[in-house]
User: Which sequence fits this backbone?
């Protein structure tokens, strides 16, 4: 996203307006004064944002690296230096490895399940028909609800003998009923389903925005040439949606790596502590904040950060780069 | 160019919108039902009693009872938590918009060495998983004696929201014609006056968009308040919903009512501001 802005930023008011026909020295002096003024303004306007951003985003991350090298219960300054032990312990803890696996399931599962669903729904809701606006609005509802509300809601719906079970029995699928949130082999898939319900609307919003930018003329030209609706989607719409799809994949991946709220609220602590429904973020908060293993928790934070950051960079490097080129060529057309 | 253009509908044909074919409607109804059925269930469930729910989880209220909603509104901490959520969300929104506009204005309309570097510096925040730094952030706030205050949530949330805000605002501010600035300067208005008198009024749509995005994000936030607001009196609605549901596990009907009331503001807000939220998300993607 960073480099995609191909807009030309104007030179702004930085250069002083010509100051009539003053002697050269005076002009240079006033130029310098003007230049100083400009810098005062730049510094004055950006400092608050930079300060708060550095203080609450960057500095804590630095501290995380530092704390992660200690065994520390959070009282007084850390003194018990253990080097990289915390990291070693994390990668030897089967629960943490489960959390890693669960994050992988959520990353891949979200992409593989939400992508096709979102694409189908977006294509559907992109067709011109009366009442379309209302349907669009309804599809976005889950995305706007707070994660906690969604979590509590599904927890109630999925309890043993709850609504989901009752519905399954009512339609004769009673044999499918499971302990959705307690069965250690199933809980992560249940959570994946809840996450899908919650976030697929986001993918749909983005894809609808992308579809809005596909020039109508192309579709019409293809239709005149006798292409069917399916052929138009397959050969015109989809390729043009490429950049939007890749950006959604990027955002979805980053979100899945950090997922916390829905997992935390929906799944029971005991199931989480066995690893069945833990993610890196819940593992970090469980161990660091609640078990007060601050050094260890911070090591997990650094691992989570490094994994997310590397994934983001790789994604940018290999997939988003093409979109930057695409953006430029599209501008030429 | 970012946020405004994309909201318009894709089909600009003048033809009146036709009725779609039955299959389209059938599919659209299924999709809509899957999206909102659980929400409707929760709201309606709030009108039942717990014994009713236990006896048949998937039935309609019989009879309808208002007692759950009445209890939540009169006997629980709902109002105080809603107030806390509101204060924090408003504080966050104000901070994000003010700091974001100032920084984005400089990045959009000043030429200086290191400008692109500064922009990249901010956009790095988009790659940066804010949640990862939550533990050291908590420790820092604790050492600064900031925990258990509104600021403990507001200040970090402003910091988290700044990158996206700047990415959305910068192209918007840059697109304001240079001629306006020249005209202002001929009239004796400096760059700061130009920002205040011309840029702010002109960029109101973009400001509303980033404002709404940060408001909704703050309203829904859970992890940061969970760690830094130990004081029950400062709890926000998401914490309240979570507490209520773990405190009164057997009171299913009460939980349903509380959950419904907690999501009502978000639903109302969304219906009113759908264009801005969607536009903002789209603008964010286009950068």
Assistant:
């Amino acid at each position: 996203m960073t480099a995609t802005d191909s807009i030309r930023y104007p030179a702004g008011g930085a250069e002083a307006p010509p100051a009539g026909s003053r002697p050269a020295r005076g002009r240079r002096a006033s130029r310098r004064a003007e230049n100083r003024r400009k810098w005062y303004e730049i510094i004055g306007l950006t400092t608050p944002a930079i300060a708060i951003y550095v203080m609450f985003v960057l500095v804590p991350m630095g501290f995380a690296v530092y704390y992660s090298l200690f065994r520390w219960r959070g009282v007084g300054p850390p003194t018990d230096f253990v080097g990289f032990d915390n990291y070693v312990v994390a990668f030897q803890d089967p629960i943490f490895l489960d959390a890693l696996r669960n994050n992988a399931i959520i990353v891949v599962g979200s992409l593989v399940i939400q992508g096709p669903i979102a694409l189908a729904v977006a294509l559907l809701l992109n067709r011109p028909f009366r009442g379309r606006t209302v349907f669009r609005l309804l599809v976005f509802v889950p995305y706007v609800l707070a994660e906690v509300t969604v979590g509590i809601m599904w927890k109630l719906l999925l309890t043993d003998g709850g609504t989901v079970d009752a519905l399954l029995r009512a339609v004769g699928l009673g044999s499918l009923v499971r302990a959705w949130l307690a069965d250690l082999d199933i809980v992560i898939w249940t959570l994946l389903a809840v996450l899908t319900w919650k976030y697929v609307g986001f993918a749909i919003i983005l894809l609808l925005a992308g579809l809005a930018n596909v020039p109508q003329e192309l579709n019409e030209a293809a239709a005149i040439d006798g292409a069917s609706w399916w052929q138009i989607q397959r050969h015109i719409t989809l390729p043009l949606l490429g950049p939007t799809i890749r950006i959604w994949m990027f955002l979805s991946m980053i979100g899945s790596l950090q997922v916390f709220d829905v997992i935390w609220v929906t799944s029971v602590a005991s199931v989480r502590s066995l690893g069945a429904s833990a993610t890196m973020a819940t593992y970090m908060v469980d161990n660091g904040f609640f078990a007060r293993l601050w050094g260890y928790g911070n090591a997990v934070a650094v691992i989570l950060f490094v994994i997310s950051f590397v994934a983001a960079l790789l994604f940018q490097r290999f997939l988003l780069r093409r979109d930057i080129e695409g953006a430029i060529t599209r501008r030429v057309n | 160019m970012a946020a405004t253009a994309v909201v318009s509908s894709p089909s600009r044909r003048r033809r009146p919108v036709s009725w779609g074919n039955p299959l389209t409607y059938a599919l659209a109804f299924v999709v809509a039902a899957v999206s909102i059925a659980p929400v409707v269930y929760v709201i309606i469930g709030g009108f039942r009693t717990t014994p009713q729910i236990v006896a048949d989880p998937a039935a309609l209220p019989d009879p309808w009872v208002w007692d759950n909603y009445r209890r939540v509104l009169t006997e629980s901490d709902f109002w105080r938590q809603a107030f806390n959520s509101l204060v924090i969300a408003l504080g966050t929104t104000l901070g994000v918009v003010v700091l974001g506009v100032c920084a984005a204005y400089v990045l959009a309309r000043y030429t200086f060495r290191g400008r692109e570097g500064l922009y990249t510096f901010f956009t790095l925040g988009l790659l940066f998983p804010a949640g990862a730094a939550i533990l050291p952030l908590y420790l820092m706030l604790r050492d600064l004696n900031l925990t258990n205050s509104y600021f403990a949530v507001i200040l970090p949330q402003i910091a988290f929201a700044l990158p996206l805000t700047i990415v959305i605002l910068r192209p918007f501010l840059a697109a304001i014609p240079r001629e306006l600035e020249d005209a202002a300067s001929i009239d004796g208005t400096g760059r700061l006056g130009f920002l205040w008198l011309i840029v702010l009024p002109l960029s109101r749509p973009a400001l509303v968009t980033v404002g709404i995005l940060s408001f909704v994000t703050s309203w829904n936030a859970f992890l940061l308040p969970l760690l830094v607001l130990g004081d029950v009196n400062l709890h926000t609605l998401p914490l309240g919903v979570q507490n209520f549901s773990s405190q009164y596990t057997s009171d299913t009907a009460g939980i349903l009512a509380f959950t419904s009331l907690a999501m009502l503001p978000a639903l109302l807000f969304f219906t009113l501001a759908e264009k801005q939220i969607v536009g903002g998300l789209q603008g964010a993607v286009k950068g």
User: Anything to note?
Assistant: Residues 24-67 of chain A form the longest helix (44 residues). Chain A touches chain B through 109 residues (CB under 8 Å). Confidence is low (pLDDT under 50) at residues 1-7, 10-21, 325-333 of chain A. Chain A has two domains: 22-81, 89-332.
